[in-house]
């Protein structure tokens, strides 16, 4: 008898910006005393070398700077962005015997010690290690940026906190059958999805080196692919977006087998929430309930005027996007037309012109003509905050009740979604499904291949039947361990002889 018990529906609540993965700020605050101690120790060593009593004490100077460092949001973002880059491209010493860095084995020993004793005790215990050498245990190049010591200490402190919070692989979960068993027994499954679940429909992902949307944008001569989704660029000149966005506009006529898999998890009463980074809105087409869907970056479902905020169904601007024409607000146009046909109100003339009034003789009369606002799809551009439903839903409810996390079709390179696995309780199993392995997050099981193929096999092993028009009769896969990893598996399609 099928299990029809559903996870309780939690209606989205409005979040405050302060709810953004609160652990990050709280952990930074915890390290202040330890950073001061390290700054004093570093400064003391510098004083011993310089021995110049005429200069202000470096320890006092550094301590004052650190105590005054209440980072504003821009500075905080700068350091977090730097850490993201370090995590994705960590420093690896060329020589294990280099005295200026730790070997990988020694670095792992240090990180294990950190997890054992905590951040503050770790700083106390390692206070006699040179900061730039200690940083190599956390992937920081000792020559990175040649930054001032206080900035390096800030990066080091944040890196240590991030390493302490980083989830570790659970040893009891390793194979695709382990993942299938989890799928069968868990009742609050969080599914985090990215562009990889839609590529089989011809919608490109964003970051693939040769086929991604951003690469195509760069090939057209733009400096950075992300410029297309920069809100300042859009407000200055929306033509770039309207010229290129047709490539990622969904046809909304069908969804992928992976979307069907998520729907099946929902129908079996196991879906807690689907957090999607995709903007194609195909989750709703697949029938994912609105109450169980968080569109982290918005979607093409609606569009809003940048001037008057009038909102319309996203379909209303699809024709403009496909024809590479900027869509203007019909409500603005209507109001402008009404104002132009209405009798002008009489204005009171001044009898005399003030002595010092200045009149710009070069002003363009066209500048005073009202212009309609530009319609923008309600997707989150760089420079805009994520939808307000994301943070509180994740931190205050889902993180407390989730019992399994499936991450499908995303490289987890964009914050804050990339931080979700490390925020969640570390005893919750995590399964990763995508074409390429991931290294900066410790997943318990990695199933590597086309998302549609992987979820088909995962469902089959769980005793479920995934039916979809894109899955041919006789379809099957092979499963092979990757490089004796014990937890990474390559899933490749094979075709059996159809009857």
Outline:
This protein has 499 residues and is of the alpha/beta class. Helix content is 37%, strand content 12%.
List the helices and strands and how they pair.
Layout: H1 23-30, H2 32-50, H3 58-67, H4 73-88, H5 104-117, H6 119-125, H7 131-136, H8 149-165, H9 176-185, E1 189-193, H10 213-219, H11 231-236, H12 239-244, H13 257-267, E2 271-276, H14 282-286, E3 293-295, E4 298-305, E5 311-313, H15 318-322, H16 330-341, E6 375-379, H17 389-401, E7 404-408, H18 420-423, E8 430-434, E9 445-448, H19 451-461, E10 475-481, E11 488-495
Parallel strand pairs: 1-2, 1-7, 2-3, 7-8, 8-9, 9-11
Antiparallel strand pairs: 4-5, 4-6, 10-11
Model regions low in confidence, pLDDT < 50 over at least 5 residues: 1-20, 22-33, 41-73, 353-363
Q: What is the 3D form?
A: globular
Radius of gyration: 28 Å
Task: Bin the helical content.
Answer: 25-40%
Task: List the main descriptive attributes of the protein structure presented here.
Ssirtuin_cat_dom; 3-stranded antiparallel β-sheet; 8-stranded mixed β-sheet; alpha/beta; Sirtuin_cat_small_dom_sf; SIR2/SIRT2 'Small Domain'; 499 residues; zinc; globular; Rossmann fold
Report what the structure shows.
- Helix 18 (420-423) links the parallel strand 7 (404-408) and strand 8 (430-434).
- The protein has 3 domains: 31-165, no CATH class; 172-201 and 256-291 and 389-499, TPP-binding domain (Rossmann fold, 3-Layer(aba) Sandwich); 204-249 and 298-338 and 370-379, SIR2/SIRT2 'Small Domain'.
- It has helices spanning 23-30, 32-50, 58-67, 73-88, 104-117, 119-125, 131-136, 149-165, 176-185, 213-219, 231-236, 239-244, 257-267, 282-286, 318-322, 330-341, 389-401, 420-423, 451-461; strands at residues 189-193, 271-276, 293-295, 298-305, 311-313, 375-379, 404-408, 430-434, 445-448, 475-481, 488-495.
- The protein has an 8-stranded mixed beta sheet, sandwiched between helices. Strands 5-4-6 form a 3-stranded antiparallel beta sheet, with no helix packed on it.
- It is α/β, with parallel strands linked by helices and 499 residues long.
- Residues 1-20, 22-33, 41-73 and 353-363 have low confidence and may be disordered.
- The chain contains 19 helices and 11 strands.
- Pfam families: SIR2 (PF02146).
- Residues 169-465 form the Deacetylase sirtuin-type domain.
- Residues 1-76, 340-373 are annotated as: Disordered.
- The active site is at residue 297.
- Zn(2+) binds at residues 305, 308, 329, 332.
């Amino acid at each position: 008898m099928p299990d029809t018990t559903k996870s309780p529906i939690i209606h989205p609540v409005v979040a405050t910006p302060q709810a953004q993965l609160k652990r990050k700020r709280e952990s930074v605050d915890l390290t202040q005393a330890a950073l001061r101690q390290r700054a004093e120790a570093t400064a003391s060593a510098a004083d011993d070398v310089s021995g110049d009593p005429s200069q202000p004490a470096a320890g006092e100077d550094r301590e004052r700077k650190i105590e005054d460092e209440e980072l504003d949001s821009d500075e905080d973002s700068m350091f977090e962005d730097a850490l993201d880059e370090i995590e994705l491209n960590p420093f690896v010493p060329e020589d294990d015997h280099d005295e200026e860095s730790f070997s990988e084995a020694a670095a792992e020993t240090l990180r294990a010690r950190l997890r054992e004793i905590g951040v503050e005790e770790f700083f106390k215990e390692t206070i006699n290690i040179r900061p730039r050498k200690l940083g190599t245990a956390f992937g920081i190049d000792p020559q990175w940026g040649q930054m001032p010591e206080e900035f390096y200490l800030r990066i080091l402190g944040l890196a240590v906190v991030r390493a302490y919070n980083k989830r570790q692989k659970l040893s009891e979960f390793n194979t695709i059958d382990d993942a299938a068993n989890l799928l069968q027994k868990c009742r609050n499954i969080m599914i985090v999805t990215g562009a990889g679940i839609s590529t089989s429909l011809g919608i490109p992902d964003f970051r693939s080196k040769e086929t991604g949307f951003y690469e195509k944008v760069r090939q057209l001569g733009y400096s950075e692919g992300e410029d297309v989704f920069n809100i300042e660029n859009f407000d200055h000149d929306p033509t770039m977006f309207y010229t290129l966005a047709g490539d990622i506009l969904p046809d909304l006529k069908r969804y992928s087998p992976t979307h069907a898999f998520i729907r099946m998890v929902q129908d079996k009463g196991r879906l807690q929430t689907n957090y999607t980074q995709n903007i194609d809105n195909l989750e709703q087409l697949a029938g994912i309930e609105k109450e169980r869907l968080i569109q982290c970056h918005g979607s093409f479902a609606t569009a809003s005027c940048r001037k008057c905020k009038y909102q319309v169904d996203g379909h209303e601007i699809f024709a403009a996007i496909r024809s590479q024409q900027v869509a203007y607000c019909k409500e603005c146009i209507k109001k402008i037309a009404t104002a132009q046909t209405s009798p002008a109100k009489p204005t009171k003339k001044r009898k005399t012109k003030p002595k010092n009034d200045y009149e710009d003789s070069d002003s363009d009369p066209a500048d005073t003509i009202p212009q309609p606002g530009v319609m923008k799809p309600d997707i989150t551009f760089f420079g805009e905050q994520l939808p307000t439903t994301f943070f509180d839903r994740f931190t205050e409810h889902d993180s407390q009740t989730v019992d399994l996390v499936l991450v499908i079709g995303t490289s987890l390179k964009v914050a804050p979604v990339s931080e979700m696995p490390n925020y969640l309780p570390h005893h919750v199993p995590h399964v990763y499904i995508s074409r390429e392995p991931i290294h900066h997050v410790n997943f318990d099981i990695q199933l590597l291949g086309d998302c549609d193929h992987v979820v088909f096999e995962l469902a089959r092993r769980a005793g479920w039947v995934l039916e979809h028009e894109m899955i041919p009769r006789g379809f099957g896969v092979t499963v092979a361990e990757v490089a004796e990893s014990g937890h990474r598996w390559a899933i490749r399609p094979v075709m059996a002889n159809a009857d």
